[in-house]
Write a structure and sequence with these properties.
The chain has about 180 residues and is mainly α. The chain has helices spanning about 1-5, 10-20, 25-40, 45-55, 60-75, 80-90, 95-110, 110-125, 130-140, 145-160, 160-170. The protein folds into 2 domains: about 1-75, Serine Threonine Protein Phosphatase 5, Tetratricopeptide repeat, CATH 1.25.40; about 95-180, Alpha Horseshoe (Serine Threonine Protein Phosphatase 5, Tetratricopeptide repeat).
């Protein structure tokens, strides 16, 4: 990890590959880490290939499905991204990240009802997710449901989401008087 934090991605990849060869660790986890080094360099196709290896190595490694979905989004393949986020949920329905990723895609595609559904599921897992609360609030805003919008944007603010502050101000809601 120190290699990556110092920007030495190639050194990190060499370390991770040696760990895979030692057979003492989960290969899927190290393939995922190698993918992360390529992702951090903006080399999304290479990252995708390692994330795919992580999935092949361990079909229950939910983070790999999310990472594959992320890379497909970066490569402008929304259909494959959606497919992998949905697979992640099938692998582990209690992992919040794919619900939020799906909600972001649905919200950006003006599929606000689907975004709401994903956010509600995410918030059952973690009610304090600033991102899920924010996306839910914005989806309700797009649907013309101002009361629900304000409720979830306020919750997002409490959870630390700065974007929600701006949205609430734009709606004329003074946060100094009553955040909750």
């Amino acid at each position: 990890m120190c290699f990556r934090s110092c920007g030495l991605q190639e050194n990190a990849r060499t370390f991770y590959k040696k760990a895979i060869l030692s057979k003492n660790f989960s290969n899927a986890g190290f393939y995922n880490l190698i993918g992360n080094t390529f992702r951090e360099e903006g080399r999304y196709k290479e990252a995708l290939s390692y994330y795919e290896k992580a999935k092949e190595n361990d079909s229950s490694f939910v983070a790999a499905y999310c990472s594959v979905g992320d890379m497909y989004l970066k490569l402008n393949n929304r259909a494959e991204a959606l497919l992998n986020y949905r697979k992640a949920i099938k692998v582990n329905k209690d992992f919040i990240i794919p619900y939020i990723s799906l909600a972001e895609i649905y919200c950006s595609g003006n599929n606000f009802y689907e975004a709401v559904e994903c956010c509600v599921k995410a918030l059952r897992i973690n009610p304090d997710s600033d991102k899920a609360n924010y996306i839910l609030g914005m989806s309700y805003k797009a649907l013309g449901r101002k009361k629900e919008c304000a409720k979830y944007l306020k919750k997002a603010v409490v959870c630390g989401n700065d974007y929600a502050v701006g949205e609430l101000r734009n709606m004329g809601i003074d946060l100094r008087s009553n955040v909750l």
